[in-house]
Amino acid sequence: MSYYEDHSPGYGARPARARLSTDAPTLDLSGDWRFHLAPTVALAPDGFWSLDFDDSSWDVLPVPSHWPLHRYGIPTYTNIGFPFPLDPPYVPDENPTGDHRLRFHLDESWPGAVLRFEGVDSCARVWLNGHELGVSRGSRLPVEFDAGPWLRAGTNMLAVRVHQWSSGSYLEDQDMWWLPGIFREVSLIARPAGGIEDVFVHADFDAGRGKLRVEALTRDDAVARLSVPSLGIEGVPAGIELVLDQVDPWTAETPRLYDAVLATETERVALRIGFRTVEVSDDLLRVNGTPLRLSGVNRHEHHPDHGRALPPGTAREDLLLMKRHNINAVRTSHYPPHPEFLDLCDELGMWVILECDLETHGFGFSDWQGNPADDPAWTDACLDRIRRTVERDKNHPSIIVWSLGNESGSGRNLDAMAEWTRQRDPGRLIHDEGDHEGRHSDVYSRMYLPHAEVEAIGRSAGRPFILCEYAHAMGNGPGGLAEYQELFDRYPRLQGGFLWEWIDQGLRQGERIAYGGDFGEPYHDGTFVIDGLVFPDRRPSPGLIELKKVIEPVRLSVDGDRLTVTNLYGFRDLSSLRFELELSSDGVPVLSKAIDVPIVEPGETVEVGLPSLPEVDGEGWLTVRALLATDEPWATAGHEIAWTQRQVRKPLQTRVPEPVTFDEFVSIPRVELWRAPTSNDLQAAMTEPGAVPVAEQWREAGLHRLQHRVIETRNGHLRTRVGSAPHPPLLTADYSWASEEFTVRIEPDRPLEIARLGIVLELPSDLDQVEWFGLGPGEAYPDSRTASRIGRYRATVDELQTPYVVPQENGARAGIRWAELTRADGTGLRIEAVDGPELSMTVRRWSTEALAAAKHTDELVPSDRLYLHLDVGHYGLGSASCGPGALPAYRLELAPTVWTMRFRRVAGPSRG
Ligand code: GAL
């Protein structure tokens, strides 16, 4: 059996230990390495590891990197199935093998030094100056080899052979791109005699006191001493337990860290200590005694150009975005992230479920026969993975739970991993999403359950419940977030969840963003990798904006002249916020004022009186906002945390002249019942066995190709029958216009679920400046609209498009009172909602058919006109792409409907 196919974790590695910030000399070996890629192991050059091997004809590759993102081979995307035959522990002969060589210089020899790899995907064999150091697997886990004996003053040569596929691949079946390479840093770390090998900080917080014990493992039995200057601790020998009366606890809301140094005579290690106690008590997951409310996301490490080799700064960018969107928890799906991310979680404050690099999902294709999570042949490999996970990251206060892995079924090796973890680190909890019975998992964790099932769990007793994945953010969606949050708020047992997922894992391919299949992969899972809350370039999607609103840590509501403020934080009062009200008339702000709110303790609600407000002429709205009063490390003063809006005066109906006649439109208005299917429309709800995707039902009914027949015209009135082949007509549509008012009346022939109900108008393409009074600024759909608020907004037609990586329905602006579409000279068209159900609007440069046909955004080519949709109904978004469809209240049925709009000409700026 070859070394890359045996069941073992490899050989030659040093025992796993914490990643330490040391003053021992360290040499970063990142940079340009010599590189050669062979399509099979057999074709890889023999003896490439020897010092005198001639690599002058080889290419140069930056390390860290993934070679397929540097034009060598291709990335491959699969979700569940392995991209090779399920034949464990063997892999195909077609096994891309990347040989890497680096010459580096040392002024003197470094006795005792170790060579550390932070991440190599998937199997590395390492030689230093021609001597083999060992073999490692575990792509997202660090490994260290003893290098000292072979290092020398002068030129040294490091050679690393990396196989894309190995036995380790069977343990790494996460739903993501397969991206081989040395994708995290490589470094050489001097290990002085009498230095510090490993450190384990135990820092508890209990009843206002800190308990601190720092375990140290040193070389040569050296004594390590701890100093924490701000706590008055100076040179206390490691291992002694200290009880401290005056410490502030660490929480994700108040991430207080104490700088510490652990030192022997030859090495100093810097530590940042956070005091907190994690436990389950009274069936609740608590930190420092307080139950947690997790508003989390699943985060893969992804960059559109660099894959999982994240450029510096990316981790911080993610965390700042998360904090600014009220997210307080991250599950590191589905492997330990780059260590920098965890340093920042400690510093900025984030609850972390740290997941081991283990997933064996593809064994589902053999009915879980031979599942490595159960088969004793793989026990060492599984234990090796959890050991390297826990040992590397054990000193991060942000990590409160160890997760054994993802979608690996169940079995003995998971049990063994849990047992080892509990012994090694009793200070944290264990999560295993496949362990529904609670064999070893401290929390009951499920994914994608529909609301009703979550509610049933909320009503019952047992272990604390979390949704480790929910609300699949694929394409336009998810819908139904607010309803999940209501359940989390209502039932204490439901301690929140983690949305799937943080970022769209699209890869840049020339001008466009690519997904599965775009690189010609023979076996792939298409668009399923595009399911994030931020686009690949990290611009927030509407889903993230909705999430921010739904999980607000401060709840505001206005009733008459009273404001109610509820503090949903667990650990901080609201003294860091200021409150502000704004009164608007027809969307135009007329007054704004600060509101005095007394200190609100965690979990408390207070009511305050609002100042009396002047009468307004138009439709009046009161907006109350909670803003940061001062800068935080993650946002500046003025950043909005929460808001609420309340109508204070109903609109007036105004009479206006200047009707528009229909010959000014490029087409006459016609009824539309279809939309370009969203990623959610295209999948059957997982929770309804046998269900057909709604998009398929709509297609079956022919909603995408309606035909219209005029059956009656009178002055100002048109009656049509509308249907589609081969079925009998669906409805009668009456269009009538009386002076400036245009009324549509729909009389269905039979009930039917439809995508939308509205009309479409084709307009000249230069009417591309849009202003509206209604909900905004972003898009709003029936089950994803809490983030939009009443106001007056402006955008160009191009700005109204949401750039979903896979083109689909997007960009609807709801609650339209009026909208104006004007051209550069200010002339154009005004639409007013007069009567009937709420009006929503989309404007595009392409038709619904073109939008539905496009597979990538660069296929959306502007036509010579605008398509203006005025809708009185939209089917909810749901999250059927993985999970439940739209809740019943948000499904759309064809029903008798009448609505009236007013069309006016906008004469240009002279009219004001
Ligand atoms: C889950 C899985 C995730 C991802 C998601 C769907 O089953 O844990 O990794 O595949 O489904 O996008």
From TrEMBL:
InterPro entries: B-gal_small/dom_5, Bact_Beta-galactosidase, Beta-gal/glucu_dom_sf, Gal_mutarotase_sf_dom, Galactose-bd-like_sf, GH, GH-type_carb-bd, Glyco_hydro_2. One of its GO terms (biological process) is lactose catabolic process. Gene3D superfamilies: 2.70.98.10, Galactose-binding domain-like (2.60.120.260), Glycosidases (3.20.20.80), Immunoglobulins (2.60.40.10). It is an enzyme of class 3 (hydrolase). Residues 655-904 form the Beta galactosidase small chain/ domain. The keyword rRNA-binding does not apply. It catalyses: Hydrolysis of terminal non-reducing beta-D-galactose residues in beta-D-galactosides. GO terms for molecular function: beta-galactosidase activity; carbohydrate binding. GO terms for cellular component: beta-galactosidase complex. This is Beta-galactosidase. It comes from Kribbella antiqua. The lineage of its organism: Bacteria, Bacillati, Actinomycetota, Actinomycetes, Propionibacteriales.
